[in-house]
UniProtKB/TrEMBL annotation:
SUPFAM superfamilies xref list: Homeodomain-like, lambda repressor-like DNA-binding domains, Tetracyclin repressor-like, C-terminal domain
Residue ranges flagged as DNA-binding region: 135-154
Regions crossing the membrane: none
Protein's UniProt keywords contain Transcription regulation: yes
Cross-referenced InterPro entries: BetI_C, Cro/C1-type_HTH, Homeodomain-like_sf, HTH-type_TetR-like_transc_reg, HTH_TetR, Lambda_DNA-bd_dom_sf, Tet_transcr_reg_TetR-rel_C_sf
Domain HTH tetR-type: 112-172
Domain (HTH cro/C1-type) ranges: 39-83
Key word Secreted present: no
Protein name: TetR family transcriptional regulator
Alphabetically ordered keywords of this record: DNA-binding, Repressor, Transcription, Transcription regulation
């Protein structure tokens, strides 16, 4: 693909990359807040903010962080792309399309909130304990609801695993949009993408735990492989496009972007598994250094 063609192919993504926390973004956050069934303080708690900081961010005297905007989108049932652009057109990941609150039947908002609460609880429990160790009763207890309510939203245990994978993919993609909104330099963007894949304590390590379990289940159960493949494609394409853009900017070598992407993503996967399983000498810092060295030696033009 030519550089002009690549830029056109990336147009939807680039809009997100250059967007900033504008008055329009604040307006859409207010829309999400207006559609929330609880109080503003409860909303702030779920986003991970104290109420005064939320008020300042809504007034424009404080900027929302990328993590906060990602969480606003999750709590509100919208996408980060919609928060920035008023449109979900940038989302090409294999997950259910989310709609803006203003486009929904108001009756659905409370129900969507319950679904998200269950999904949140299941995601954290599976990440912490493992898929086969989590019972429906555990999820119901964590949500303060009944097992019948869990089964209403997720008829079988396999549905929980499938949806937690979709949730992880969505979290990763939304975080990429929020984190890379002002990064135009492809080299910096590639390094930031690598950083976003490191299994650091907290959210990223939990995402890695989910992925590790999905890999295991997919190896044993062919029916899960299509979902896994479709989900992984988003990550692969993001790296390949970033490398292609870096070549257009004259920052990267002219090597085949697909081959570079294959090797880089394989390194990320292998090192991530070694870090998660506690192999001696394999730490997040060591993983970061190996990946940065690979980018510098094999991708960056010198």
């Amino acid at each position: 693909m030519s550089c002009d063609g690549l830029r056109l192919a990336q147009a939807g993504f680039t809009v997100c990359v250059v967007a900033e926390t504008t008055a329009e973004v604040r307006h859409r956050v207010r829309e999400v807040l207006d559609g929330y069934s609880g109080s503003q303080r409860e909303f702030a708690d779920r986003v991970g903010l104290d109420a005064p900081k939320l008020s300042k961010s809504l007034r424009g005297t404080r900027r929302f962080t990328a993590v906060e905007l990602t969480r606003v989108a999750e709590v509100g049932g919208v996408t980060v792309g919609w928060l920035f652009n008023g449109s979900d057109d940038v989302e090409r990941v294999a997950v259910p399309r989310r709609t803006a609150l203003s486009d929904r039947d108001p009756v659905d908002v409370t129900e969507a909130g319950r679904y998200q609460q269950i999904l949140d609880a299941a995601w954290h429990l599976i990440a912490e304990r493992g898929y086969h160790a989590v019972r429906i009763t555990d999820i119901a207890r964590a949500c303060g609801t009944s097992t019948a309510t869990i089964h209403y939203h997720f008829p079988g245990r396999d549905d929980l695993l499938v949806e937690t994978l979709r949730y992880s993919v969505r979290l990763a993609f939304e975080r990429q949009i929020a984190e890379l909104q002002t990064v135009d330099d492809a080299h910096e963007r590639l390094l930031r993408l690598v950083e976003l894949q490191l299994p650091t304590d907290g959210l990223l390590r939990s995402e890695w735990s989910i992925w590790l379990q999905v890999w295991n289940e997919s190896a044993l159960r062919p029916e899960l492989r299509v979902l896994h493949s479709d989900s992984y494609t988003r990550w692969h394409e993001t790296i390949a496009r970033t490398i292609g853009e870096g070549q257009c900017q004259g920052l990267f070598t002219d090597a085949d972007p697909e081959e570079l992407t294959l090797t880089l993503t394989a390194l990320v996967d292998g090192l991530g598994i070694q870090v998660l399983t506690g192999r001696p000498g394999r730490s997040v810092d060591r993983m970061r250094q190996v990946l940065q060295d690979f980018v510098d030696r094999n991708i960056v033009r010198h």
